[in-house]
Amino acid sequence: MEKLSCKERFRRAMRHQEVDRPPVCGMTTAATTELMDYTGAPWPEVHTDAKLMAKLGLGAYPFLKLESIRIPYCLSYEAEILGANVNLGKKNSTPMVKGSKYRDNLDADLELMDEKEMLRAGRNPVIIEASKIIMKDKASKELPTVLGVTGPFTIAGHLVGTENLILWTITEEDMAHKYSNFVSEYVGMWLEYVDKNLGFDTIQMSEPSASWDMLSPDLFDTFALPNLKKVYKRMDDTMSILHICGNMLPMLDNMIGTGCTGCSIEEKTDPYQAVKKANKRSALIGNVGVVRPLLQGTPEDVRVMTEKSIDAGFDVISAGCGLSALIKKENLRMMAETTVNYKRRSKTSKRVPLTAGPANFHFCFMLSRLSIA
Ligand SMILES: [Zn+2]
Question: What's the gap in Å between 1 CA and the centre of ligand 1?
Answer without folding.
Answer: 34
